[in-house]
Amino acid sequence: MGALDLKNLAVTTYDKSLIHNLSMRIPKGEVHGLMGPNGAGKSSLAKAISGHPDYKITAGNLTIDGTNIVGLNPDEIARHGLFLAFQYPLEIEGVTVANLIRAAVQARHMNKKISIHEFYENLYECMDRLKMDRSFSSRQLNMGFSGGEKKRCEILQLMMLKPKIAILDEPDSGLDMDAMKILADGINSLRDNNFSALIITHYPKFLDQMNPDKIHLMAAGKIVHSGNKSILKELEIHGYNWINKDS
Amino acid sequence: MNTSNNLSESLDPGDFHYDTTYEYDAGTGLSEKTIEYISKTKSEDSWLLAFRKKAYETFKALALPAALKNDNINFDNIRYYLSKGNESKRSWDEVPNEIKKTFHRLGIPEKERKYLAGVEAQFDSESAYSRIKDTLAKDGVIFVDSTTGLKNYPEIFKKFFGTVVPMTDNKFSALNSAVFSGGSFIYVPPGVKIKQPLQAYFRINAENFGQFERTLIIVDEGAELTYMEGCTAPKFETAALHAAVVEIIAKKNAKLQYITAQNWSNNVYNLVTKRGLAHENAEIKWIDCNIGSKKTIKYPCIILAEERAKGEILSMALASHNQLQDTGAKIIHRANSTTSNILSKSISIGTGLASYKGLVNISENASNCRNSTRCDSLLINQNSCTETCPTILVHGKKNHLQHEASISKIDEERLYYLQQRGIPAKQAISLIINGFVNDLINEFPLEYGIEIKRFIELEIDG
Predict the structure, then answer these.
(1) What is the ipTM score, two decimals?
(2) Model's pTM, two decimal places?
(3) Which of chain A's residues have a Cβ under 8 Å away from the Cβ of B413?
(4) How far are the Cα atoms of A62, A78, A115, B202, B315 from residue B241, in angstroms, in the given order?
(5) Which residue of A127, A232, B100, B290 has the fewest CB atoms within a 10 Å radius of its CB?
């Protein structure tokens, strides 16, 4: 039983078929990479798994820790342990970073009021690790954030919410080298037996910093190759043409 | 008894009701006799009885506002005056038990101790409790209910009463002028700056009841005041009516801030006329929060009568299922270099309709005036509705006006984003709404802001 199990999954959006017969298993404690050309269906897969209302799972199984999550609302899936770091995080007026994270943490502890003191202690610890200024927590969520700040804010939420399985949709896009390093360190700090991740990216070098256990290549709505990280080098040299040659 | 107590504890603090008996009851329906009864019970002078009767004639002659044409409000079904006597008490110990219980439930004595400079608590027609800090009384500050104000300070009361809102202004200002009872009367002498707010609570307790309080506030030269009012009513089977008139006057260099937070139950017709008159370099600010009621019609107004007067109206309205929030702001610039600012935020849920009506009028003789208006509307559901109807009239020259409006819908992507963080849809919506009104709510004193946010959450839950 994996942290995340996809078996023969099919996904459609507005009657258009995006993903067919896709299987993937991410065992507990492992970090996997998901790569593939634009339009392969990587982001659609992430949205479908997280329960986005526009993406319908029409066939197959999808489980977190053995629990079926097909048909659940996005918030239920999240509380089952899934976190999705968005490629394009949304701006929310008047809601501060701390407001959002507190509401999210509180939603996981329905019957117990979390202490504000404890919450801020945790928050500041994570912010320090991501080299974020304290004032960041009182800014309105993603409003006027730079691309890098948005990505970092997603990772901050990830660190605070401690999911069983995280899907990160291009967490590195638009980041400079230093920011990429900070982000990779933040993700690495989460690595333990109860945390798994699927990282969607176009940059083999970024993925390499997280020492992934497995790399999946996706094209036209299917997994076309799964193997160890040695293929990162091939991709670096040959690009995605290498997939076509192979298949 | 026990079970019903437990039940009421689980409800919103505004949604409870204690049975009570009234010593004075004008009965049901409205006629000259009703007015005579009210006037006699209050031992009023003859000029006031004549004023009331004239207002009653005006009320009958004036038409209903268009928004109420199809409501069949039956004025003969309403009770116009109910009280346990019109002597308001200076100590909570003297207040009748069930009235005291009501205000305890609303947390009033605690708030008074914590952060208020004075409190007035009105139960149906008359004030039950009224008190200000001794230091303010020594400075000559008057804070009493309007019945007491008329009796003890007729020379000030009579001079300003009806000068800002004439009885002929609209049908409900006429009705209020005919049957008014209770409300606050405040006078702040020149130069006295009151740091903590004065607060009034208005509670409708009886079924079929009409509450017609009349508030008159005069802040003299260079003086400062923050006044807050809170309004609640329990849920009844039949409609209740709240038709207040509020007149406020800020003399030269005075500052006056008037804050309203009301959470009426959803069968109250809330039809209120509020208007302020600002003299030279004076500042008036209305901060108005409208939650609940069946229909609310209210456009706080400021007349900037002399040079460099400033006016500001911040209003928030939440129109829930089957509710109309017909709210807005009116500013009349009558003198040079007067400035004003309007910020309106409205939220429509389900079949609720939030309608903003605005008027900015700059007189012919006025120049160098400035107005900035901003109206933001948020729609929650597919079938939610909002209207923005601003009227801008500029007769004078060299004036500067600015109008911005936005309408946004809670979009599915934002909702999904918050839900992906584990936050259930309802809570996610209330987070977005709270965010939308946040800058406005920050204008309220902290305790009020928290209460308003809780009201919003309760509306979304329902």
Answers:
(1) 0.96
(2) 0.84
(3) 90
(4) 56, 47, 43, 13, 21
(5) A232
